[in-house]
Amino acid sequence: MAFENLTDRFQAVFKKMRREDRLTESNMQEALREIRIALLESDVNYKVVKAFVEDVKEKALGSAVLTRVNPSEMLIKICHDELVKLLGDDNYHLESRSGLYKIMLVGLQGTGKTTTAGKLAAYFAKKKHKKVLLVGLDVYRPAALEQLAQIADSLGVTFFGLGANAKPLEVALKAQEKARAEGYNVIIFDTAGRLQIDEPLMEELESLSKNLALDETLLLVDAMSGQDSTNVVKTFNERLHLSGVIVSKLDGDAKGGAVLSFKYLTGLPVVFTGTGEKMEDLEEFHPERLADRILGMGDVVSLVERAQEVVDEKEAERQGKKLLSGEYTLDDMLKQMKMVQKIGNMKVLSSLVPGLNRLSDEQKDKAEREMKVFETVYNSMTPYERRHPEILKFSHKNRIAKGSGLTNADINRVIRKYEQSKELVKTMKNRGGKLPPNISNLLK
């Protein structure tokens, strides 16, 4: 995930500061030097880094600092406030008004624009319950229209296109007529991109913008492109008067620092971030929540929202009641594991759950492997063995190991973890039903 290294560096600075009695010129100088290096190494623009460090120093050594507060806690608060200000404390969210809400998505080729157009359609159709028309204006890239049509079909929204020989403006105007005539709420135009910015591309986009009276023009940038993306934003904004930016591939190995630079350098807000390949992996951008994640404080609100979107609430409630009754089988363990996996992989969860960010990449990978091993073992057992794993003898384990391609040691580890979980459920039941945080708790 993006920002992992930056989070680790901030955490190291705060840990050192916990040993101090108060904030002083001396210890702040060392802390700010490490923060400056961390931000620069994370691809944050040097002008932004300079402004951020100066603001933090001014606040930390100013008269408003409370001497009775722990220096580490004070520095965390100051850094958090300044990060929020840097990211844009005036949240910008897309809100479709009455009538037809028109959005044009622009960007360079290879940033995932067509997929993101689909994600936008999913956002409005599923979260906002709007009638969406997805329009293909990329008549140049081979199979671009087919790709968008397939995405629309998978989402249950309408696709509109006139083929590879049509003119983009002609397609857009006819799509607009259809949307108005048939009562669509939202129309999303997926435009063509280029490998680099050129005059024909910009002239085509300017013509579309001029003739469509758009509500939103959103630029998609790739988080992997680093500081170059800021120049892309500036160039597009000069010609098209963008309303906001969407950052894709923030779930990858990008340093992520460019996200911290957009608002300060261009005045444009980040509206969404792409956090995966699935159609639901498009998150509204919340500066405070990202600041929490960067500083290693987790993001419980986003965790709950994800749980509410992907987990069946009734099933979660049934599981909760069953656990409170003291029953706990391998079936239950698998169901709970599946609920967690729907929310995200360990890298995603570690950025959302406070404390999990301390896990190393090796520990996260191990946890992912353990879940796969559990499911493989489960699938190699008979229904009776799943309900009564206590009957498993050496011969049973041999058969399961051969059927799953694993070892007896793997089987024993799965059963041991199940027994530990079962004992925990029993203990919590005896304490009056106080269970550790799980998905059913988050949904209540």
Shape: globular
List unreliable stretches of 5+ residues: 434-444
Element string (H = helix, E = strand) = HHHHEHEHEHEHEHEHEEHHHHHHHHHH
Q: Could you report the average pLDDT, rounded to the nearest whole number? A: 83
How far do the termini sit from each other? 29 Å
What features would you describe in this structure?
The chain is an alpha/beta fold and 444 residues long. Helices cover 56% and strands 9% of the residues. It has 20 helices and 8 strands. It has helices at 4-17, 25-41, 46-60, 71-87, 113-127, 144-155, 168-181, 199-212, 228-240, 262-266, 287-294, 300-310, 313-324, 330-343, 346-352, 361-379, 383-387, 394-404, 408-430, 439-442, and strands spanning 101-107, 132-136, 158-160, 186-190, 216-222, 244-248, 270-274, 282-284. Strands 3-2-4-1-5-6-7-8 form an 8-stranded mixed beta sheet, with helices on both faces. Helix 10 (262-266) links the parallel strand 6 (244-248) and strand 7 (270-274). Helix 5 (113-127) runs parallel beside helix 6 (144-155) and helix 14 (330-343) packs across helix 16 (361-379). The radius of gyration is 26 Å and the shape is globular. The two termini are 29 Å apart. Mean pLDDT is 83; it is low at 434-444.
SSE arrangement:
Blueprint: H1 4-17, H2 25-41, H3 46-60, H4 71-87, E1 101-107, H5 113-127, E2 132-136, H6 144-155, E3 158-160, H7 168-181, E4 186-190, H8 199-212, E5 216-222, H9 228-240, E6 244-248, H10 262-266, E7 270-274, E8 282-284, H11 287-294, H12 300-310, H13 313-324, H14 330-343, H15 346-352, H16 361-379, H17 383-387, H18 394-404, H19 408-430, H20 439-442
Parallel strand pairs: 1-4, 1-5, 2-3, 2-4, 5-6, 6-7
Antiparallel strand pairs: 7-8
Helix pairs in contact: 1-2, 1-4, 2-3, 3-4, 4-11, 5-6, 7-8, 12-14, 14-16, 18-19
